[in-house]
Amino acid sequence: MKSIKTIGLFLSIIFISSCSFSPIKTAPLSTYTITHWPKKTVVSQKTISARSILVTTPVASPGYNSSRMIYVMIPYQLKSFGDHRWVAPPAELLLPLMANRLRATGYFHAVVTSPFSGGANYQLNMQLLTLQQEFLQPTSKVRLTIEATLLNMTTGHVIASRVFESVVSAPENNPYSGVLATNIAAHNVLNQIARFVVKNVRKSSLRR
To answer: Which residues are within 8 A (CB) of 54 and not within 5 positions of it... i.e. 6 or more apart?
Structure first.
């Protein structure tokens, strides 16, 4: 009886060892970015001012502060795709795009991004409120919502603050289609923010 138990234990160890070393097929991780650069100037402004602006890294609301790709199938319930990720948290990906939009306006003498230790006339702060692919209708949609706040760094006062949103239908109901829709939504929202910034900087300059 003892030898039977010993043989059984030995066979169990071999089975467990073979399972631990057997290859487990897992789906490869796919990573995506947001790089919808503008093809033309977003604001008609030929005269470059002497003003400079600092664009800080957007702050992401809870649930949207990681590289996970968020989707929604039930209102208010956030889920993430297991095999699909952003290359970095979306808030970080939006920073260079926003700076490039402001440079494309041709309005500012300099557009810098954080971290930056020098001085600037204005500062643009953004908060990523929502970035999700919504499967609530037959055709999924991507919702991107950003709050933008423009500050006068000389006075420390808030010049203007506004929430911008873009909802774009995805070509298909899959993660990659969500990536395509996200790039379009980012292009739409950041262009709106660029116009918002230039408009309010010009207004504040006229008040002096």
So the answer is: 112, 113, 114, 116, 120, 122, 123, 124, 153
What is the C-alpha to C-alpha distance for residues 149 and 146, in angstroms, rounded to an integer? Answer: 10
Identify the residue whose tokens are 């939006």: 94
pTM over 0.70: yes
Number of Cα atoms under 13 Å in the Cβ half of residue 187: 14
pLDDT digits (tens, 9 = 90+) for 101-124: 999 999 999 999 988 777 889 999
**Residue 59 β-bridge partners:** 127
Rounded to a whole number of angstroms, the distance between the first and last alpha carbons of the chain is 98
- Residue 104: CA count within 13 A, CB half-sphere: 20
| Strand intervals (E) in 61-121 | 68-74, 77-86, 110-113
